[in-house]
């Protein structure tokens, strides 16, 4: 009776070949990355023939002066852009979920999120066009401005989600207990919003660190970022040190995205 | 003289308050026209079903909503336009709204530190007041805990202590017991009442639970559809309901059509369908021969042997065992159904059979005439 009953449920897990199909699906997603990580530890000069384990390519990458300076550029730009974007996104989130309702609010929220779906190549070309037409040449500044723009929606999402989840009666309780708007904001709203703000900051940081298309358009001599530098290395063929650098970037990205996710979920 | 007197002793006066959300002409009306006087040191309850406007009224006293028209006086001073942080009233929120990122002691100190007076108090005075308040609600041991580490009942006490700490002139309680289980709710009723007596602060309590209202309040205002239906002591509200809504909302009742037979100075004699004569307190607007509705509580009716004198014949429809009480449903000659309730006393309950013919006896003075 019981097995019959069980079989009648249309459970996709009991379809024949479900396990094998799932395995293939994950392989399809992650095989290139697994191979890249594996070969970053390969001792062989050729990037495609495995001989033995070694950390030589990491050493080579660390000793590459040009690579280190590109990584430094990327970090500087990512820190500046993500901090500026998070400040703007926090204000935008407060305005759209705590301020009085205003006409065109949905449109404003849509406009904040739009950079998420705009074709990057178009944004890149447009930014480059604008910068050169007004003759803006700030070096790092150009890249920071361009990165801030596409970082804002990534920072905005977790902050707004946190604000929407927050019990409005907490701020009312603060008001009721003689705290004016400023004290309520600094003592109640902001501390409770902090996990959302950090989560947004981490996401924005990673998005800036990994960006290629827009950086490629906007960067000038001396402000080469890490992704652009790696692209340049590939012109001379896939060398194992590219694998090592890519693995490092991947590790940083996974770390920050996990942190962002955990902070976004945390309950205080 | 008496007007002046009431002005002096009213803690909160609601004067012609109206509240419309959104557009003043077409928006939904939360409160139509409310006039209320809440006395100093009173346990006052706003009672009504959800959507009656009781919470809106409380939120207007707290300052979270502003009236569309009318005045709210706090000891004679109009506070209707002031923001919540400039009103000497505090609120116990329905879901407590304790600050999750602060310890219990920090939660209690928050209002004292924010208060303009509190800034002059100094750290030691605040710490002393906090421990005083923790002692009042017997939560001294939990001063360093976080709200999430406390049970619902404990959070409730902390919320109460936090609201009382800055010595508010009036304490507002927004259905504070609704999230607790039955045993705890009953214990908290007594505790709230004793804390009110101890502190001497005026309590305004919002609830939809009529039992809560009857057991705790000095006076009750029954609200429905944005209007005050009746204001009075619990016994007034229960024994002499003004209208059908109040009679039906507070406790169980029977409605009986009746005709006014004789009118005296302070009472009326009415004949109910089925023939029996009832005596009830007089009311304005009654005239001889008028058709009215009587409300009679089920516990004021008795079932007796069918041929007893001064009874109305009836037939037992069903009998329900309620534990503390026994409830009977009987039908009268005209087909109307009435509920009868008797305490469940050992050995004293006659056993009846559905379909059995019985006599229905009304307590004298047990009926009240309803205005609509």
UniProtKB/TrEMBL annotation, chain A:
PROSITE patterns: ABC_TM1. One of its GO terms (cellular component) is plasma membrane. The chain crosses the membrane at residues 21-41, 75-95, 107-131, 137-159, 188-206, 212-232, 244-263. It is a multi-pass membrane protein. Keywords: Cell inner membrane, Cell membrane, Membrane, Transmembrane, Transmembrane helix, Transport. One of its GO terms (biological process) is transmembrane transport. Its main location: membrane. InterPro entries: Bact_Polyamine_Transport, MetI-like, MetI-like_sf. It comes from the Bacteria. Residues 71-263 form the ABC transmembrane type-1 domain. It is found in: Cell inner membrane; Cell membrane. Pfam families: BPD_transp_1. Belongs to the binding-protein-dependent transport system permease family. CysTW subfamily. Required for the activity of the bacterial periplasmic transport system of putrescine and spermidine. This is Spermidine/putrescine transport system permease protein PotC. It comes from Pseudomonas segetis. The lineage of its organism: Bacteria, Pseudomonadati, Pseudomonadota, Gammaproteobacteria, Pseudomonadales.
UniProtKB/TrEMBL annotation, chain B:
Residues 12-250 form the ABC transporter domain. One of its GO terms (molecular function) is ATP binding. Keywords: ATP-binding, Cell membrane, Membrane, Nucleotide-binding, Translocase, Transport. Coiled coil: none annotated. GO terms for biological process: putrescine transport. PROSITE patterns: ABC_TRANSPORTER_1, ABC_TRANSPORTER_2. It catalyses: ATP + H2O + polyamine-[polyamine-binding protein]Side 1 = ADP + phosphate + polyamineSide 2 + [polyamine-binding protein]Side 1. Its EC number is 7.6.2.11. It is an enzyme of class 7 (translocase). One of its GO terms (cellular component) is ATP-binding cassette (ABC) transporter complex. It holds the Pfam family TOBE_2. Belongs to the ABC transporter superfamily. Spermidine/putrescine importer (TC 3.A.1.11.1) family. The complex is composed of two ATP-binding proteins (PotA), two transmembrane proteins (PotB and PotC) and a solute-binding protein (PotD). Part of the ABC transporter complex PotABCD involved in spermidine/putrescine import. Responsible for energy coupling to the transport system. This is Spermidine/putrescine import ATP-binding protein PotA. It comes from Pseudomonas segetis. The gene is potA.
